[in-house]
Every structure is written in C-alpha cells, then in structure tokens.
C-alpha cells in the first residue's frame, strides 16, 4: 500500500528537492518519479520499490533541500468533516508502530493557516490510535515516528519516518527567537547552522573556551555576534561598518579588506563566510583556506543562481571533494538549505 515518499522543502525549491531525491534513489539502484506543484512546498516521489526500505537506506543528512520526509500512504481526500479520523485507523494500523505523531503542513501562506487545525487533528488522531493500541504511549521507545501532513480540511497524507533518519522537528523547521541585541537577522542563519551541523553535546568543546575566528563579509555583524556570544575572539572582514556594540566587547577586530584576499596572521579555529558572490568563486576561496590549513572548521553560505540551483550546489561540493581528496586531507563536508536560508545553502567543512 505504501509506494511513495513525501518530501518537504522551502516553497519554490520543489525542483531541487525532486532532483536530489531522484539522484539519491538512483545511487542505491532504486527508480521512481517525482510529482509536484511549483511553490507547493512539497514533493511526492513515487517509487518502484518499498518506501520503508528506501527511507532507511538514503541518509537523511546527506540531503540538502529536503527539510523533512516520510514514507506515505496514498493521499486521503474528501474526508467527512463530522469524522475525519475513523477511516484513517485501518490504513495506519498497517504502518510500522510509532510513539509520536508530528502535525505538519506545507510551509506556504495557505499551509501555515492550517497549522492549528493540523495540531488539533493530530491530537484527536493520536488519542484514538493509542486507545486502539495502534500507537504506543508517548514515552515508549519506537523506531518510527508518524507524520500527519495536512493539505486542507479534508485532505491529508499520513506516513512514517525512521526516528534515527529524519528530523524530530515539525516540518523539519528549527524555530529560533531573534536575539534583540544582534545587529542583523542573518544571525539566525549561523545559529541554525550550529544546531544542524554540531551536536549540542559538542558545543562547549567546539565553540566555547575562547576560540579564534575570522568572519568574511561580516558587516553589520550578525554572525560575528554569534561568535562573540560563544566567547570567541573574532577578526571581522568587510568594507562596510560593523555594529558599534560589537566593537565595544573588545573581542572584535574589524579589517576593512577584500574577503577574497584576506589572509589570517596565524591559523584560527573557525572561519565563517557570508559574502554574496558567485558560488564557484566563494567555493574556490573556501578551498584556499582548507588547503592552507588556515582554520579547523568553517561554515559558509553559497548564494544560489536563479536556475539550476541543485546542479550549482553539487558542482561546488564536488569541487571541494576533488581538491581535498587530491591533497589527501581528511574532512567532513555537508550542506543544508536551512529554514533561515533563502536563495542560498549553508555548508560546513570540518577539517579537524
Ligand atoms: C549578507 S551580508 C553579511 C551579513 C552578515 N553575515 C551579518 O550577519 O550581519 C554580505 C556582506 O559581504 C560583504 N562583502 C561582499 N563582497 C565582499 C568582499 N569582496 N570583501 C569583503 N566583504 C564583502 C558586504 O559588504 C556585506 O556586508
């Protein structure tokens, strides 16, 4: 009965999401085809294989544009408004057992309006599923998590994802509060990047303890603010002005230089880069830092062109992989279209 994957993404990135799932499935020898409506915020991938098997074999963290996913039952449509739940119970009983149910909607204007409704429906559904023994109590251990993805008051998808190969967050969205003292909203991108790329238990080792950092394209200082907040000593490179409050901390040196030519006097722990330029040019610059051993870890944004965004990201990642493999440098590279990213993706290169 299960034959599809449901993949959530930022509205407008359905083609990228479709291209990447097609590629990943083909890499494990599985065929399928994507179906999506542009700007809908999700893609359905019809598989010629068992979706429960596929969703365990494709590593979720290797996907860039997919925020959240599940192996789903066919769309439920025209559910009776007086009782939406009863006819869902038998099909759900065929799914692997789970102990939690995420209420989700497409991340679009129309979708977000349905979010409170989705939450209420999920509570009612979970209650009935538990009463009937189809779903485990909240605190039980289960290998799967269930998803309710609501498209309208009468149509929805239901599916499951492996707990260790998916996102525990509704819609895969990390909601962060904007810190009022930060000089720009961009600050949330770096904070979200740390949440995604660095396990929380490693934050104090990898971010704390008075580390050194370079911030390329730093002004007005949203990213520098995050580095300073972790106690780092930061060289902020930008021709534009940095926020006075940051300079007053005594932890920031402002260099009014070109980020493409700046060299650190000695290696630093972190380099971050939010310069808006061609992705290939930024990538080449990041490689120069990696090959010279100028930092241990870096986080950088690749601003994407309007067309062929998936290809552009893959080319940049390949460029890094090829050069570092040739140089016999060990590294870990990953990329993610974060919730706070718009026409860009965020990459993490770990050279430790
Ligand atoms: C998106 S903004 C950075 C925002 C910053 N991350 C923050 O959180 O406030 C991009 C910055 O890159 C800077 N920039 C662009 N090209 C640059 C270059 N070649 N050298 C130095 N800075 C550059 C711009 O002046 C701009 O301040």
Structure explained in plain terms:
The structure is a single chain. This protein has 352 residues and is of the alpha/beta class. The protein has helices at residues 14-27, 51-57, 86-93, 109-113, 115-131, 187-197, 203-207, 222-229, 244-247, 279-292, 309-326; strands spanning 4-8, 32-35, 42-47, 68-72, 98-104, 144-150, 156-162, 212-216, 233-237, 252-255, 268-273, 295-303, 332-336, 344-350. The chain has 2 domains: 4-172, Alpha-Beta Plaits (2-Layer Sandwich); 187-350, 3-Layer(aba) Sandwich (Rossmann fold), CATH 3.40.50.150. The strands form 2 sheets. The chain has a 7-stranded mixed sheet, covered by helices on one side. Strands 10-9-8-11-12-14-13 form a 7-stranded mixed sheet, with helices on both faces. Helix 6 crosses helix 8 and helix 10 runs parallel beside helix 11 (309-326).
List its traits.
binds S-adenosylmethionine, 32% helix, Alpha-Beta Plaits, 14 strands, Rossmann fold, seven-stranded mixed sheet, 11 helices, alpha/beta, 352 residues, 2 domains
How many domains, as an integer? Answer: 2
Measured by DSSP, the beta-strand proportion falls in 15-25%
The radius of gyration computed from the alpha-carbon positions, rounded to a whole number of angstroms, is 22 Å
- Text of the CATH class of the largest domain: Alpha Beta
| CATH architecture annotation of the largest domain | 2-Layer Sandwich
The strand order across the widest sheet is: 2-3-1-4-7-6-5
| Oligomerization | single chain
State the share of residues found in helices, binned by percent: 25-40%
User: N-to-C terminal Cα separation, in Å?
Assistant: 46 Å
| Helix count, DSSP H or I runs of 4 or more residues | 11
Tell me the structural class.
alpha/beta
Q: How many E-type strands? A: 14
Mean pLDDT: 97
Reported by name, the CATH topology of the largest domain is Alpha-Beta Plaits
